[in-house]
Amino acid sequence: MLNQVNDDFSFSGLKTSVRYFIEKNPEVTADNSRISDLCASIQAAIVEVLVKKTIRAAKRERLNCITASGGVTCNSALRASLHAACNANEMTLHLASPSICTDNAAMVGLLAEKIIEQGGAPPQLEDDIKSTWTIDATATKP
Question: What is the average per-residue pLDDT within 52-66?
């Protein structure tokens, strides 16, 4: 991913590779130290891509300040690597406090619960996504 000139952060290919690696090497799952090594390697790869692509985008756009929030921002390796990269590139870094870095899926689930509690109809599996949907807990989908 680092050689791609885009700013995409999709790790679906990495997840698929790990899945097939484990299927081909089932002995890895039987050894806690090997599982730990695999997980640490995956984390290191993801952090490297996130940090390098973020710094590259900031430089390209001539920005000197980076902000980050969301669930992944709780990851201590990512936070440390972002700090180091920003310091090395003389950029300012603002990270949201881990206490407010929640997972987007959790926020969407909570919003859905509130909409349903207020009488809104839950979406159906066959519903398409509409960019005009509001995210107001008192609203229902159009």
Answer: 95
